Amino acid sequence: MKIIFLGIQGSGKSTQAKIAAEKLNLPYIETSQLLREKRAQENEDAERIAEALDKGNLVPNEITIRILKERLKKPDCQKGYILDGYPRNDDQFQNLDPDIDKVFYVTVSDEETIKRLSKRGRHDDIGQALERRMELYHCKTEPMLDKFRDKGILEEIDGEGAIEEIAEDIESRITDYAKKHAN
Length: 183
Known about the structure:
Blueprint: E1 2-6, H1 13-24, E2 28-30, H2 31-39, H3 44-54, H4 61-72, E3 81-84, H5 90-94, E4 102-107, H6 110-120, H7 127-150, E5 154-158, H8 163-180
Helix pairs in contact: 1-8, 2-3
């Protein structure tokens, strides 16, 4: 099963994606973690990644797409995966695996996002970098939702409840999907 979790930073999408990956015994792939790992290397990609992230911008698509495709070719992804926070724009959507089974969109208000991220304390979760990331999310990522909705694979999840309740909601939706597509 191939599942995507989308939501603005601080929505809880990563928490829910990790829970689902563990329950389904699928690899959890977070594009931002892949990019942070590449950033730690000493090469041109690392410099371009650092520059984008420090300003609150998206990493250039050609880098993000290439890094993700390399990861998805690994043997552990052949039976499926949980993808966290991708795609973030139309170019990434166009390069996405066409066989995605479900997309869970975890929703929270901007106010809740700011409140949650201020507690995390990462340097890219404050001030102008955070405002820029939120703006990019609303302008570039949210339009992807209609594409998934049109394919009939989008599930909207209220991310402002208790973690366990949200996880149960997602699990029941995955179970319902699996039952319908078992034949």
